[in-house]
Amino acid sequence: MTGPPFFVYGTLRPGEYNHDRFLLGRTSAEEPARLAGALLYDGPGYPYAVPGEGCVAGDLVTAAPGAYGALLAVLDDVESGAGYERVERTVVRLRDGAAVRAWVYLAAPGTPLGPLIGGGDWRARGGPRTP
Fold this sequence. Notes:
Blueprint: E1 6-8, H1 19-22, E2 27-41, E3 48-63, H2 68-80, E4 84-93, E5 99-107
Parallel strand pairs: 1-5
Antiparallel strand pairs: 1-3, 2-3, 2-4, 4-5
């Protein structure tokens, strides 16, 4: 099973606390990317992206050969339990400016949002990196 890559923008990014827990050994590429048409809000230890007039920084994650189904299943399980819904969006890969269709987990309708994260980069917000 194969499909679009994933755009991650919070605790699943390389170097963040959930990356190794859920992505380690399941990816073949992780590249900086941007999601236009979205705003980023703080949440209970992780951020939420919602449609809006802004841009969100993150990483485009490609599943390792043979790992797509397992990666999709674990991310759907983790993210749906935290108030996200999976949607397909176009993101821009920074290394070459390519527009890439990817799965993105956006805040589900009715999910309580914290303060807006100006600049759309969860890493730049300050604060702790652990739950």
